[in-house]
Amino acid sequence: MDNSTERQGGVRLGCIADDFTGATDLANNLVRAGMRVVQTIGVPTAPLDAQADAVVVALKSRTIAPAEAVAQSLAALQWLQEQGAEQIYFKYCSTFDSTPEGNIGPVTDALMQALGTGFTIATPAFPDNKRTVFKGYLFAGDVLLNESGMQDHPLTPMKDPNLVRVLQAQTQQKVGLVDYQTIAQGADAIRARFATLQAEGVGIAIVDALASADLVTLGAALKGMPLVTAGSGVAIGLPQNFGIAPDSQAAALPAAEGLQAVVSGSCSVATNRQVAEFIATGRPALAIDPLRIAEGADVRGEALAWAKDKLAGGPVLVYSTAEPASVRAIQGRLGVEQAGAMVEETIAGIARGLVELGVRQLVVAGGETSGACVQALQIAQMRIGAQIDPGVPWCHALSPAAPQGLHITLKSGNFGTPDFFTKAFSTL
Questions:
Q1: Lowest mean pLDDT among 66-80, 116-130, 138-152, 220-234
Q2: Sorting pLDDT into bands at 50, 70 and 90, what band is 49?
């Protein structure tokens, strides 16, 4: 008998994610560790559709003004507390991308104050996805973060890989470090280091992690901590603290059906490779030109007319993905914010139109793009299913455009193997 059907009680872990793909990344790791998870789009205004051990409230707060990010996060905290959440998890990107003003630091400060806690941890480490932290420095694969392509991010360029330094510029708390040597000594040593840091006036500790086992060890040391801040990796070590073990039934979703499509607005290195790989297979792909959108062309209508007769033959791709030099050229002509918002709105409209044409298996690439798409589809909650690649699960959601539901995956720009777009459908 599976323990998911026997499990009783309400929400044990309450999570606040600063973007939509990051929310599914976190939810994916919790499901893999046995938790039943519901992801909400924004702070819920209706009851949950299903029983859940954890709820992930997905916000679109990573790149908005710090004050607004704080307000949204506090609203999510209040709702999670009302559901009985025993521990709060603030989730940000595994590339820790932000600006000197925030939003990681300001949101962490506000949540600490609201929860009445003087200490928490911070680590974006996710070794399964090639994000490791060593001596407080963040690595993406085999290179430092600022050599990984993130230094060219159009909204939140990361030019400093030292997380203690990066976070200290954003927070009112003193920032310290729990290094890999302490992690290797086990949970008791980690808790002792926490106590030492607190005695030294440290409020937030960056934590090293070189392997998934480090995160499991860290998870045990976080039992009872009111607030955890991290990327999605730490999630693999938390369900054990609530007596929950891995269970395949936690990832069960309805059977997949309907047409297949991919929409991509990410300009990351990984997504550029995925677009190129999809095109190399000979499948239909259509590039969106931001300049034509700015000129007032009906790009959405053109894309849907192009896709209509091709969907029956298998998955199609509509993308605005481009190399960094092309992105900078477009931003130079249109402005950074205008270019980004214009493309997101168009891609989201195309995603909605594709679902109205019968697409019931939809891959969305890019954090900001994912946020725009789920809003265009008016998705309020998603059940989290099985993993496609580390950090990226299939989900099932209801939408006015698909009243019986659709399968959707929200892929962070930097995640996934080169064949992700085709592999996703074969996995489902």
A1: 138-152
A2: confident
Tokens of 157: 């360029």
8-state DSSP, 256: P
Q: Residue type for 136, please?
A: G
Specify the CATH number of the domain 253-427: 3.40.980.20
**Domain(s) of CATH 3.40.980.20: residues in the chain:** 253-427
* Cα–Cα distance measured from residue 138 to residue 131, given in angstroms and rounded to the nearest whole number: 7
**Residue corresponding to tokens 């509509």:** 318
Alpha carbon 207 to chain centroid, angstroms: 20
| Residue 367 CA: distances (Å) to CA of 248, 288, 309 | 27, 18, 29
Is residue 11 within 8 Å of 55, Cβ to Cβ? yes
SS3 128: helix
* Residue bearing tokens 């044990």: 12
DSSP 129: G
CA atoms within 13 A on the CB side of 423: 15
Contact by Cβ (8 Å): 373, 418: no
CATH number of 3-248: 3.40.50.10840
Cβ atoms of residues 315 and 261 within 8 Å = yes
Q: How many CB atoms lie within 10 A of CB 125?
A: 30
For 1, residues 6+ apart whose C-beta sits below 8 A from its C-beta are none
| Range(s) within the chain of domains with CATH label 3.40.50.10840 | 3-248
Give the whole-angstrom CA distance, residue 408 versus residue 405.
Answer: 10
Q: What is the pLDDT of residues 337-357, one digit of tens each?
A: 666 778 889 999 999 999 999
Q: Give me the phi and psi of 214, to 5 degrees please.
A: -65, -35
Q: Distance between CA atoms of 306 and 369, rounded to whole angstroms?
A: 21
- Residues 6+ positions from 204 with CB-CB distance below 8 Å: 108, 119, 120, 121, 122, 167, 171, 173, 174, 175, 176, 229
Cα end-to-end span (Å), the chain? 25
Residue 92 phi, psi dihedral angles, 5° rounding: -125, 180
CA 53 – CA 274 distance, rounded (Å): 34
Alpha helices in 255-298 (DSSP H): 269-280, 290-294
